[in-house]
Prior knowledge:
Elements: H1 12-20, H2 35-48, E1 66-69, E2 89-92, H3 99-103, E3 120-122, E4 128-130, H4 137-147, H5 152-167, H6 173-183, H7 189-195
Antiparallel strand pairs: 1-2, 3-4
Amino acid sequence: MVEITHRTPEPSELVRFRVDNPNAGPADFDTDDFQPVKRAVKRKLNRDQLGLCAYCESLLAPDEGQIDHIKPKLGLNGHPSLTFDYSNYAHSCVNPTHCGQRKGDRLLPIEPRPGCNARFLLTTDGFVEPDKNQQQWEDARLTRDLLNLNEPELLRKRKRFVDSTLSFLPDSEELYSEFLEFIQDQPYRHILARLFP
């Protein structure tokens, strides 16, 4: 997952919307009035996440995907008070089989925040696995499964990427630091950091 740091300031369009609509609730999130705000928020999230889906770390353009509420705004686990809270937003790809749409209104045991990937491992086959050496390995398993991060298409893409990355793995310590710098700009960079410490 992307270890999201919501950079300040939050989008001015979102601040203005909250000021102009102090009683806005979850139903207002999908109104026509909120669409321009959504576009601005999505662009800002995309910059904060450096162009990656918050959950699967696939490349995501600023105008693609959706704004996902990390803590859902509705449902049994709903947090309606966080509907317009920028720190509760993640830019996620749109696919009913994984990521934000798959999560729906369920709570993630591990959220895409700084340090979240310490609980996951990436295998050379592209699988995301819980790190059984961590206390919260069961939370990692539940999170992985809620987001369906080992969905076959995601797995194929990650495997191809890991294979390509391994083919560039230098055999000298001198070049290894350059290699680590290189993967900092690649898809799957957060989870790759666990494979290449």
